[in-house]
């Protein structure tokens, strides 16, 4: 399985960007994943680092038994491979080629070239000319980005192919391409120069307030060590000027068989796959000297220190860390047990921090504690907290004192028992669903084990090890482990603030020291609670039932008007997804009023009338359930996910939210607190401004899509959300969709006892036609200009053409969608491949199922401001060429094949059916849309694409938007 923690700095970066964080899980912390069973504990004595021999796997040095379903092997040249058969979904596979080669291995003159090399893997090899690799894969049905991708970080470079088919041609071609990447890249100077602009575009896009804070934090915590000097994106001057020879030198030094691992998981014969790998890669020999292993440097002894970083557009966040040497010893059973005991202590501490954030007067927006091994350079134990503007002292004191309380008084047995129960529930569910894990998940688990040389274990092994470790485990043992985690150099206090603070860094350190003087008391045990929503009265009666045989779906109607759609599947064992649609969503909200959807999280966080969200989670700790609320175009939605054993509880939770929402004000106030800086965060980047303002611009004159202003957020009241939602909750039409590992009878029985037992609901009715009328912005000769406060070389160009809704002509909507795919291919060829102007030109389209006559096709790009005019000219020229000359047979194939294969892959997921069946009882046209998705796309011809382009891609209809820097 995957490690419990990624690098703690990356996690801290994500935490610092969170607008509101009511619980540890919502902060992005893992609930718990067994091995490597958490972050590594820094031992009292210096451990012996593990150093595997070429071709050796970590299980050779460990007493942990490896997952027997995986075949591990090695070639004589030292390249390792791991192969696992997984036939669900049928006919699919995931291939991963991983090199132990990242930015840490770069010389001063190569900073950024490990990542640049990753780009060059797609730009020419001895057997594949420049520009052909992606096209070859598209012809096999792999979409660029979704199915064909790569990434580079500090310690590795990873190439990914997700195959929609496992026929001989697809597998052989994919292995050939990976073999070309391994040792046959040409890295031609001309190709390198053409790719520079693409890499520089990626550097611009990454340079956000959160990323700059991350860099500063890493530099402060790992002072004098190598990682802060080797960020994967590198240095701009190197990216602009480094010769191809420097990239080639890195390639020869580090892309070597002994540094490579090929992972193959899928619906294929393992013996045949192993034979293909041996045949294809056995002749690979290194062509240059072995690259040196990087010296990351020692952890320096340090006392209490502080650093303050002022970053406009960032939320206020603080991290307090203790730094120790990393534990790089071998993965063993004893080490995993130590890690588990320590992790249980952190789980208790995080639960306490979550409770504080949910209180009546929370001292912070969100906080968490964790421990992680960062880049094999240091072991970092960290507290992190997000605060309201001006509230940093209160937040810092609260998190410091809660940590000290846990260390001084330890954890209680009841707290430990709860965390054990939650982890046991998660691991038990993982065992139940093990047989239907996706190929991508299994491949990721193997790849994730490579960073730390941990042994890959399966869910049943993880559960057995867990049960053995927690048997007779006492709170005193966990308390001791948690206390031992907060040791090392420090505490080091880092703060990121959008504005200067009085006293600067000295004030930050003084505030921590002042808090440390405050005596803490032992925590009080919570009161006993019970689940108050186990019954809803007499079960509802079914008055109508009909089968949609060709879609394996059943429609049910209860006497109270609740409609139920059931689709039993075996796509994922032990997984059931549920969506409850109530009322009319945006169609219920007057056009002149903003949606309160920005605060929708306050609905579920507000708990229930008879029990708070915190107590609900505690009393249902052994159950698998969820509750999410949203505002959709045509319904308010409550959704969750569960397992067959807990289907009744999941439906009780959702029914209780409909019948008796708690409307506690604390969650809403916390969202308002986070909202104080949300506009600054959006305005700090071009992409943020676009995300905030585009929905309203695409629906001109309609306030429902308008993001609230600073003043509106500041003056917002919980009653605003209540007023929009309560009428629907009271008696609005209810549609329930249940998809997954259940039966029709079990689903009917569970709904009858819950939603079917509620008071009668209104019959569905068509919305007021005036509410459905939405417009599209009119074209203008010059683009509308928005301004952002980020870098002066960051800009976005956006062009959109109006189309129409889906049901106006479903087949024409499919033709227009394929036309959009062709346009994206041409934009990539022109703007990325030919001009090297941008990293990610994209095309998107929307044909509404709800708003009559409303739809659009849009193209966008990130470029320097000086290239915006060129983009607008190029995209309109491409539109005219598609209308005048049409598409080529090869373009049409490369557009349709990935789209068709992606639909096929989606159709074997529960998420797809949950989405597609939503609203189908009220509007059976949606069923026809499902049926025709594949045959309708297959029927699209080159003439259809050209006709769609002629109809829609007209210059006089093109609406243009430019997001430019405030300072040019």
Structure characterization notes:
With 968 residues, the protein is an alpha+beta fold. Helix 10 (333-357) crosses helix 15 (475-485). The protein is globular and about 75 Å long.
The residue ranges in which pLDDT falls below 50 over 5 or more consecutive positions are 1-46
Number of helices: 32
Strand content: 15-25%
* Largest β-sheet summary: 7 strands, mixed
Strand order of the largest sheet: 12-13-14-18-15-17-16
Helix content: 40-55%
Mean pLDDT: 93
Shape: globular
Radius of gyration: 28 Å
The assigned structural class equals alpha+beta
First-last Cα distance: 49 Å
Number of strand elements: 23
Briefly say what this structure is.
By secondary structure, the chain is of the alpha+beta class. It is built from 32 helices and 23 strands.
Question: What keywords describe this structure?
Answer:
single chain; 968 residues; alpha+beta; seven-stranded mixed β-sheet; six-stranded mixed β-sheet; 23 strands; 16% strand; globular; disordered N terminus
